[in-house]
Specification:
Length: 190
């Protein structure tokens, strides 16, 4: 899809700017090393952080964000954002369900309903950063808006830190509901 190819190019251009800024701060990592770390996938800051860690420019993965590439830090670069309705439509066109990932406290009932009206299918209710009170609140707001609950570990391939693959258990019934939604969408497109 052209939209995804454009998005990948934007992410590479962003990584290139971050690398150039790090180089200007005497951290001589290369874009080639970052692309290799991404392994052909969409390039992101976690790949840059792993290259910084491997080169010994930070002592731990999190330090790369806290000191260099996190919001407000010297090498932070905002990513280009898509219009929410356009992103949802693209996911639907590909046959998927659109999920609001790790919304945290920003998921007010009004905001959830506005996104539901734009075509959102689900909200990530279960996430390592969501405490129990927030999980319950998100579940209630999601259900009221007629959306599906979702969950995940937010694992990005790193071995350190609290987010591990399989570290967030999601009720099977939630996955069944999501599968049914995908099947219904596929049937409607056929």
């Amino acid at each position: 899809m052209i939209a995804l190819a454009d998005l990948r190019q934007q992410r590479i251009a962003r990584a290139e700017k971050i690398v150039a800024t790090l180089n200007a701060h005497s951290i001589p990592i290369t874009l080639d090393a970052v692309l290799k770390e991404a392994g052909g996938g969409a390039v992101g800051r976690p790949h840059i952080a792993r290259v910084m860690l491997a080169g010994g420019y930070v002592r731990e993965f999190r330090e790369a964000f806290d000191k260099w590439i996190g919001w407000g830090r010297p090498a932070y670069m905002a990513k280009d954002k898509w219009d929410v309705a356009d992103a949802i439509a693209l996911v639907h066109k590909a046959g998927g369900i659109a999920v609001w990932a790790h919304p945290g406290e920003s998921a007010t009932p009004t905001r959830i309903q506005r996104l539901a009206d734009a075509g959102l299918d689900a909200v990530e209710v279960l996430h390592p950063s969501h405490p129990p009170y927030l999980v319950q609140r998100l579940f209630d707001h999601t259900e009221k808006a007629g959306l599906l609950p979702s969950g995940g570990s937010d694992w990005h391939g790193t071995q350190e830190g609290p987010r591990k693959l399989g570290g967030q258990l999601v009720p099977k019934v939630w996955l069944d509901w999501q599968d049914a939604k995908v099947s219904a969408r596929a049937a409607a497109l056929a």
